[in-house]
């Protein structure tokens, strides 16, 4: 009996760790395929994932997470549930670089 409770506790701990690891996943809604969208986003199945891709093809990349609510079948509640999982940077966009310092004008020597 004691070993059964130990096994059950181990299984419960494993599930908690697996779910928290899964919750940390992020998805770029501008580049992800339908399978990735439905795996990472809560409340998004195959049909809604395909609708996201179709919207993206028609209207271009998403500029904000809220724009995801413009896709038929997706509301602001779904966007809010997934806010931590949504990324927007397009793959062609380089990571932000710090602004270069202005160079002083050259000094002429006598």
List the helices and strands and how they pair.
Layout (H helix, E strand, L loop, with lengths): L1 H22 L3 E2 L5 H7 L5 H14 L16 H7 L3 E2 L23
Helix pairs in contact: 2-3
Q: Which descriptors would you attach to this protein?
A:
single chain, 110 residues, mainly alpha, two-stranded parallel sheet, 4 helices, flat
Descriptive notes:
With 110 residues, this protein is mainly alpha-helical. Helix content is 45%, strand content 4%. It is built from four helices and two strands, in the order H-E-H-H-H-E. Strands 1-2 form a two-stranded parallel ribbon.
| Broad structural category | mainly alpha
Give the overall shape: flat
Mean pLDDT: 81
Beta strand %? under 5%
Number of strands: 2
Helical amount among residues, as a percent range? 40-55%
Largest sheet, described in full?
Answer: 2 strands, parallel
In order across it, which strands form the biggest sheet?
A: 1-2
Low-pLDDT regions: none
- Computed over alpha carbons, the radius of gyration is 23 Å
Distance from N terminus to C terminus (CA atoms, Å) equals 94 Å
Please count the helical segments.
Answer: 4
